[in-house]
Amino acid sequence: MEVQQTINATRSWSQYRRYQGKSVGFVPTMGALHQGHLSLVRQARKDNDFVVVSVFVNPIQFAPNEDFDNYPRKIRLDLDLLEKECVDLVFAPSSEEMYPKEDSRMNQTWLDVVGPITEGLCGISRPTFFRGVTTVVAKLFNIVQPKRAYFGWKDAQQLAAIRQMVNDLNFDLEVIGLPIVREDDGLAMSSRNAYLTKDERQEAKIVYQSLELAKSRILRGETSVKKITTEMKLLVEDSALSRIDYTTIVSSQTFRPILELENGQDILIAIATYVGSTRLIDNFRLKVPQF
Hints:
By secondary structure, this protein is an alpha/beta fold. The chain is built from ten helices and nine strands. The strands form two sheets. Strands 1-4-3-2-5-6 form a six-stranded parallel beta sheet, sandwiched between helices. Strands 7-8-9 form a three-stranded antiparallel beta sheet, covered by helices on one side. 38% of the residues are buried. The model has no long low-confidence stretch (mean pLDDT 95).
């Protein structure tokens, strides 16, 4: 397994593989890897001749009051895990390599996906987040030049924004979304789970339970989104350690809000919750059954 820290070396490595007619699968990450990330790596290994993983905590997707400085960084452990998965190249640049300016948070060129995909859900409480994500992912795509790129459905809104960007700007690659990987009690795997105290980790399972509650209400014939999301909120906020950022149901294709469920709709039930000071997101995709 090679580890590269520069754009030029990584681009040259990938261009040579493309020249050979080989396919490159790419998994962008911010490190602190878990089984969710590794599920993406394994699929990339199955689908492609070569696999590249980036490990880069992207400063421009963090607002000034967010956790950029404290975000978990475990590069030695990450490299051990990736080597066991037979990854071919790890691209682990510095902020200065990706944004060679005095202040890496003050990027001068941005790529924005606008409209319903980014306006709601996390776009409300993190208004600068998605332009930071799409900007860095576009840069990474230009550097690595993959045939396929892999993302998890836990970050469903991010995945939709990246797919829109790839479609609108005619990137020559396929974006593949893979299922959420969960702990035994249902909690979606996330690097930020490391922030949780023992008590908070116990309470965090309420996030998945709220999604299960919504699913059960829908399968029993409830069509009022307001009733469903209110029940979710009440369940979560019954815990003294948790508070809601949002509970919502949107179209899984357009991310437009839905007020009343209809037969056959493809929906995304989504939640963002603070457990202690840690913000957790989760979602569940569902096709509304015939009532």
